[in-house]
Amino acid sequence: MESFSFLAITFLFLLHSITTSIAQTTTAPAPAGPLNITAVLEKAGQFNTLIRLMKSTQIADQINNQLNNSNTGITIFAPTDNAFSSLPPGTLNSLTDQQKVSLIQFHVIPTLITMSQFQTVSNPLRTQAGNTNNGQFPLNVTSAGNQVNISTGVVNTTVSNSLYSDSKLAVYQVDRVLLPLAIFGSAAPAPAPGPASSKEKKKPKAAADEPTASPKDAADASSGFRLHWIISEMWILSIVIGSFFWLHL
């Protein structure tokens, strides 16, 4: 009887141990931490300038908030530190705060695009920088095999590496900074001058436009001068003759 009780207790202990072990084995793993774009870039290395700009413009916080509170996903083109170093000296310092925001937003597409989907996307891609319909932020891609070419109207480059990809985020390395037309495009040509205002003062006529005397008027003037000269001579002659006769009386 005692043996039976001992065996029963042992059986119950083993059953409890097995049940506990199975329960621990089938417990769901702890959820992963929230996605963080700067952590992704820091792990990849060589993106310190991009990280600094994302933090100073607060775009990093916006991206993280969208990644963890939306199902649309995000695609990011990440220029390397060498890409920023290749810009003309003083380029970033010459930008206003709003232009820096637009520059970084131009590298962010508010949808998830995988490498294979680049072959079927419609151009221009819509970025977070603004509406592409006004021609200020055009971003066009073409894909041939595994190569993805990018054009902004100012620079052309290619996707050189896929840094990160999951169901919400895709990060692609590019070796040139994507410069938008709205900030780095050539200045618009000056407008053509309009018609002169009716209130504008009239220019004086040139000397060539002044009326000139006709040949007939010139001849008449010459004849009058000669007649006046003859009369004057006859008057003087009459005075001389009169004086001669007066002296001999």
List the helices and strands and how they pair.
Layout: H1 2-25, H2 37-44, H3 48-56, H4 59-69, E1 74-79, H5 81-85, H6 97-105, E2 108-109, E3 140-144, E4 147-151, E5 156-165, E6 169-174, H7 181-184, H8 215-247
Parallel strand pairs: 1-6
Antiparallel strand pairs: 1-2, 3-4, 4-5, 5-6
InterPro entries: FAS1_dom_sf, FAS1_domain, FLA_A
Main location: membrane
Domain FAS1: 34-178
Question: How would you describe this structure to a colleague?
Answer:
It is found in: Cell membrane. Pfam families: Fasciclin. This protein is α+β, with helices and mostly antiparallel strands and 249 residues long. The protein is 41% helix and 14% strand. It has a domain at 37-181: FAS1 domain. It has helices at 2-25, 37-44, 48-56, 59-69, 81-85, 97-105, 181-184, 215-247; strands at 74-79, 108-109, 140-144, 147-151, 156-165, 169-174. The protein has a 6-stranded mixed β-sheet with strand order 2-1-6-5-4-3. A hairpin with a 2-residue loop joins strand 3 and strand 4. The radius of gyration is 48 Å and the shape is elongated. Residues 15-31 and 187-222 have low confidence and may be disordered.
